Amino acid sequence: MTDRWLEGRVVAITGAAGGLGRAVATLFSQHGAKLVLNDLGCSVDGVGHSEDPVNSLAESLRAEGAEVITHHGDVAIASEASALMQSAVTHFGGLDGLVCLAGIQRERTVLKMEEQDFDAVYRTVVKGSMLCAQAAGRVFAQQRRGGHIVLCTSIAGMFGNYGQVNGSAASAAVYGLTRTLAIELKKQSVRVNAIAPIARTRMTEGQPMFAAMPDETYGAHFVAPAVLFLCSSLCGELSGEVLSIAGTKLSTYRVVESEGALLDDPRTAWDPREIARRFDALSRL
User: Fold this and answer.
1) Kind and range of the H or E element at 151?
2) How do residues 223-241 score in pLDDT, each as one tens digit?
3) What is the pLDDT of residue 192?
4) Are the CB atoms for 152 and 100 separated by under 8 Å?
5) 197-222 confidence digits (pLDDT tens)
């Protein structure tokens, strides 16, 4: 490999033990990154805890010559998120990138959704991403050399998806988090972007839309290069973007406003009947 885009860079990855995280960690190690890998080793629905999955990945990467340490804390707890970033500073002397891929899934329709199932998904995806980004941002600010943060949203957060009211809400929140972090951390030269992947992983296994999507065309290895791009100097000044990856297809998602319409008299509020009459026109993009 002639180009090693992360040579000597220190990157923390959450949700690193399987699926997208494993693919990203593997590719990053091949590009010279020093890795801090975090994973609770829980089931898809967030139950249980095992250090074995992330430790096993770390051992395999070390066998290939990579510099890797592990962290087993719950990143939805502020002290653990901070400890994850500080472990990078203590062991490797600094931090250059953060990739947040930790997530769980508890599919329920809204009429069957239990409060704890909504809270668990939202806590892991949104709170975990925010606390990790906050902790990384504080390290970047102290170092004064910039950095990269990559979060993970989904098309469910953009368009909705049946049975995923909790996951959709969490993914939509991550979009807003990405946009705001990009604005707030710009002064620190921190690039904050997100991915919206469509890939076969343990999280998506069993979903109808993936039944006809084989690993060779929709595997996690298709997503990893996009994360590498967003976590390297190749992305330049790019920040606040959502990059979607579906096999070999790449696209971006953005919230856009329609042309809209104005009333003739700025002192008069809209009449609901006028809204109904002009809705198609004011919705035109």
Assistant:
1) strand 147-152
2) 999 999 999 999 999 999 9
3) 98
4) yes
5) 998 666 666 655 555 566 667 789 99
Domain boundaries, the chain: 10-254, 258-285
Worst-scoring range by mean pLDDT, 32-41, 205-214, 254-263?
205-214
Contact 13, 35 (CB under 8 A): yes
- pLDDT average, residue stretch 13-40: 96
- For 149, the 3-state DSSP assignment is strand
The answer to whether 151 and 192 have CB atoms below 8 angstroms apart is yes
Locus of tokens 């990893």: 224
- Which class does domain 10-254 fall in? alpha beta
The DSSP result for 47-81, as a single string, is ----SHHHHHHHHHHHHTT--EEEE-S-TTSHHHH
Tokens of 67: 């510099």
| Nearest-angstrom CA–CA distance, 73 and 16 | 12
Give 115-150 pLDDT, tens digit per residue: 999 999 999 999 999 999 999 999 999 999 999 999
**CA pair distance 237, 229, nearest whole angstrom:** 12
Q: Which tokens go with 188?
A: 């620190």
Put the strands of the sheet holding 249-253 in their side by side order.
68-71, 34-38, 10-14, 97-100, 147-152, 190-198, 242-246, 249-253
φ and ψ at 196, to 5 degrees? -130, 80
**CA–CA distances in Å: residue 270 to residues 95, 260, 273:** 52, 13, 8
Q: What is the largest CA-CA distance in the chain?
A: 72
Q: Specify the amino acid at residue 10.
A: V
Euclidean distance between CA atoms 26 and 102, whole angstroms: 16
Query: Can you read off the two tokens belonging to residue 107?
Result: 């599919």
CB 269 within 8 A of CB 262: no
